[in-house]
Structures are given as structure tokens and as C-alpha cells.
Amino acid sequence: MSEITKRKGKADKADFVISRYTLTSLTVLKGSTPSDAEVGLAKCTGKTEQQWFHDGNNLLWGGNPSYCLIPNYKEKIVNLGNATSPVGWIHDEKARFVPEGGKKAMDVPSKAPRTRVILYIPHDGNKQKWWTLSELEAELDSAPPAKYPVPAEDETTYNQELGRTVSNWFGTPDAPLPYKRDVETFPGLVSSDAPRITRNLVLDLSVLGQTRDFRMLAPGDWQPTNLYVPPDEMIEVILPDSLTSERAAQIQLRVSAHTDELKPTSSNVKNKEFKRMPVVSETYDLTPGTNKIRSQFGGHLIFTFSKGENFLVNIEVRNVVEAPYFRLGHTTKEQWAEELKKGAPYTLLESERTVLIVATSDAQNDTDPDILMNRNDEIISMINYAAGFDETELPPRGKYWLVNDKQISAGSAHAGFPVMFWRKYCDMSKNDIPYTWVTWHELGHDYQQSNYWDRAYGVESTVNLYSLYIQQQLFDEDRLEKQGDYDSAADHVDAGMTFAEADVWEKLVFLMEIKFAFPDKDWEMFRQLRKITRALSDEEAEVLASKKQNQYDHVYKNLSKIVGSDLINTYNRWSLPISQEAQDEIAALGLPKAPGDLSHRTKKDVFVCGQPELEKFPAEQ
Prior knowledge:
This protein has 621 residues and is an alpha+beta fold. It is built from 18 helices and 28 strands. A hairpin with a 7-residue loop joins strand 2 (25-30) and strand 3. Helix 6 (369-386) packs across helix 7, helix 8 (450-457) packs across helix 16 (548-563) and helix 12 (485-494) crosses helix 13.
């Protein structure tokens, strides 16, 4: 043992330094000496690389106590240094770690993947707040368990709940949880008489990732199962010993698709309450052989894959329960009735294009899964078409996951992967929900080319091009028309309103006016715009994403080319800035100029481009 480990005041037990912002642990990510080590953040595992021993104010590394944590002011990072010349760290009253005599604090970068630890000017933000596991457990041992709901302003309970989540990760999976959780409130308990079973599965990594950058949020590589992990019970996931470490590293186990993290600042929590625990989903890395895992929350057993080698592998899972499961085209009505008797609180339904997670109690009430999942697939097909995908350009592979939750971070639903729906407002088990605006809107967000043009024209506006298309196809209706937005937007523009001043509906009207003015192109103009954007080279796409002006120009130029008319007059009418370079490019094509006023007024005659008697546009007034 090194002399440094015998210093007076050195703790005998390893401690851990945990970021409250990321819920990850200070770790020597690679290397083992000051010359080659990289110190950053990784999932809390308790491994030697994450262990630190207190020696006064010094932090000695568990991997080799001859080294300690030091600040590197030149590169603005932390690293390992020789413990014979230590630098002490003050864990101050604001939960920051500040080097003795230093003017910087340990910080976490704002941008993902947030695996680095940097030095930055001290502030009171969450990115500079840290726990040590020893201090955290001392606090939790004297605090009563949380029971939901919890007031949003109860910051102490919120932080303790995050602390319980983290502290439980350091426990051993074959022992009871150090800190109990309010699973009964959400996601729910597993019936005590539900049989715990062993199941053999085939994990399919034969096709991974997307074929290219679709410049949208494409589905992830998630493989669902009909298995459910009981909370606070150890399960075993057994991978073949013959599987290489590299292949095993491509496989991750996720327990629960309820991935939304709630914070006091979340719009659905702020000034209200937490209806459930802030975090209720966990992920686990796997290695060849037996992996012992205990989830403090429980949830559906899901395997997620990262890109790499393509292969199939047989695995075994022990001590799980069966959850109600429906697969379109395979599960009969009689089988569905039996499935719903299984004792897991959540049910999984799967079809060719979608995976749906709903409360079992909801699925038991008048759900016709054939109608429901056919409709979900129908909506995805419509969005694929509206996005410009067809037999000549196939959409991204993978299934969209739609998840019901007791409480989500924002809105009645929000986009992402998975797409989250607040069960209180959107019971996804109901057969009519796929045919409602909220479903079209949130799925549409995942298809947006936000960085390349949607953001400039209004993310919450352009997304409803998908919604309007689906509404027209299903019901031959137009929400803008019902709301009177075409007329009011035209009146407001007549009165001097600019595009920048328009609300989300009025900005949508701008694009829809162009659509109605060229009925021979109709929805095809937006399909082509999205195709063109996907076809850009990486360099072209980077230029487009770098400036809002480039995005205004991109849409102006391509819509003008698609409809065969220079749209500069309507852009000017709406005070939408177009660069002279872009105007010159379209002018050089010799296209006729469309009128500025393309208003689609529902109460009076409207101008329609492309009719024989209007092939020569009247002079702009």
C-alpha cells in the first residue's frame, strides 16, 4: 500500500462524486496515470474507476491512491495528478466543488453527451451542483420516504428523490433496495401472484441504425418484449459467454419506456405538483455471461441497440413476469382477452409501424386493438407520404413508440422518441385517439426538418402541414378554415402585420396560401421541398442550418421552382426577408411572378394560379 493511503484523516471507505445535473458519477474514463487519464462522467456503477477517498480536502483516486483529482486551469478541465502534490477541493455550501485557492468550479457542459467535467466561473446553476454519496446517504437515512403527489415547490423532497434514485444504483442487486420508492403510485405494482418466469429470447441486431441522415428524428433501435420487470426484484439477463465484449456493448437493457424526467421547472409541474417520481426508467449495460439487475421502479423489458456489427444472439431472462401483449395480425380476440388478465400494470401493443404503451386498466376498457393499431399505422403511413417518402425513397426504418404516462414534462403530449402522451388528457388505448389532432401534431414534430427550414418558418406552425394533410385525407376538413384563420390572417397582413409578428396559425396560413394558389401542385410542393432538403450534401445542410436567412432563401427558391412561379411578391407582402442573391437566382430562371396577395379568403373569391385565363399574371398593384 502506498504511503499516501496511510495519511492522517484519510477515509477508509470509498466515496463517489455525483453530478446532480446528469445523475452520473465522476469517473476516470480511460487511462490510469496523469499523462494518459481522462476524467469525466459516466453511469453510476460503483466500479473502481469511480471511487474516491477523502484525505482531508483531497480526493485520492480509488484506482491508484498515489494519484488525486487536480484542476487543469490551462485546458479548463480536471485530471489526475500526483498525490504527493495534492490540490484540495472545497465542497461548499452551494454544493459546488471548488479547488482550494481557485477561482473556478467543477462544471458540466450544457451540450450532450455531457460526459466531460470542465472548470468554469462559479455560479448557482445545477450544472455545478454535486453530491458525495456519503453525505447524500447521511441525509437520506434521516428523511422519511416520499409519497406522491409532492408539491412542486418542495425542493428538498425533489432533490432527495433524485438522491434516492442515485443511491439505489450503488446497492447490490441481490439485496433489498437501500431506499424504498413510491412505485404503487406509478408506474404500479406487479401482482404478487403473477408467475415469475424464465424466457429465452432472440435479440435481432441484423439491421441497425438508419441508411442515411434523414434530417429528422428517426426511430431508435428498440426491441420490445412482452416481459415486465417487477420493481425491487432481481432479474438475470444471461448473454452467451462466447459473445464478444464489443458485441455485448452494443446491447443495452432499458426497463420502462416512461423516459420523461420531471423537474420543478417542467411546465406541467411548475407551480403545481409532482404526480409521480421524477425518474421512472433505467438503463443497464450488459456483458457476456450473467447480468444481475434490480430495477427500483419496474417496467417493460426493452432491449436497445447501438450501431456496430450485425448479428443475432440467443439470450435468457430470469425472474420476469408476462405483461399483456397484442401484436397486430397475430393476436386473436380470444387471446387478447386472456392477455388482459396478466398482472403487470402496463400493456404493450405492437404493429408494423408503431409500439404503444398504455395502462392495463385502460386497455381493459372497450379497446379494440385491431382498430387501434391499424389506425396508428395508417397515420404513420400518411405522415410518411406527406414527408415525401414513397417507393422511390423509403422512410426511416424502425417503429415509433407512443407512451402513456401519469404525468409528462410538457403539454398534453410531446414529440421525441418515444412520443409521450399525458394519460389524463390522451388515453392512447381509445380507438379514436389516432384520428385526433394531438397525435398527428406530435408525430409530425418528429418528421420536421427543424434545423434546415422548419424552425425559421415556425416549428409549431410548419408541423401542422402534416396535421392539415391528415385531417383533409380522413375528414375532408381544414382546421384553419373552421377557425377563420385564412380570412383573419389576410386582414392582418393587409393592415401591415409582418411574418415575424404573426402567430403560429397565421404563419401556417402563409404556406397554405401558396398551396391553394397552385392546386396543380397541392401537397406535392411540400413533399418535394422535404425531398430536396434530404438530398442536400452534408456541407450544404450545414450551411443551411447555420443561418435563418439561408432557410428563408431555401424555401423561397425551391417552392418557386416547384410551382414554376417566382414567389417574391408574396414574400414581400408578408415582409419575409429574402436575400438579393436568392432573388437573382430565381429571376435568372425567367419565371413569371405570382401576385403578392395569394389570400385564401373563404368569404370571397380567391385568386388561383395556373388557371388557363390567368396564365399571365396581372401586374402587381
